[in-house]
């Protein structure tokens, strides 16, 4: 159905954000402590999930709104 495609297409911006965070961790940060690594990826995963929900819902609402205007 269209709403899943609308939600997932913009939601995958968060997946890009997560991959960039991993790249940033590996290349720019100098974290060697296990606790700091755990905290970094824990907060990154929470932010990624929130970004996924926010962008997905925004896209769904905008797409649903434009479909109503076309009717």
As a percent range, the share of strand residues is: under 5%
Instruction: Outline the low-pLDDT stretches.
Output: none
Strand count:
0
Residue-averaged pLDDT: 91
Please tell me how large the radius of gyration is: 16 Å
Q: Secondary-structure element sequence?
A: HHH
Shape: elongated
Helix/strand-derived class?
Answer: mainly alpha
Note the main sheet.
Answer: none
Distance between the termini: 18 Å
The total count of helices amounts to 3
Fraction of residues in H or I helices: over 70%
Q: Can you characterise this structure?
A:
With 71 residues, the protein is mainly α. 87% of the residues lie in helices and 0% in strands. The protein has three helices and no strands. The longest helix is centred in the C-terminal third of the chain and has 37 residues. The two termini are 18 Å apart. The mean pLDDT is 91.
Architecture blueprint of SSEs:
Elements: H1 2-11, H2 13-27, H3 34-70
Helix pairs in contact: 1-3, 2-3
Descriptive terms for the model:
87% helix, elongated, mainly alpha, 0% strand, 71 residues
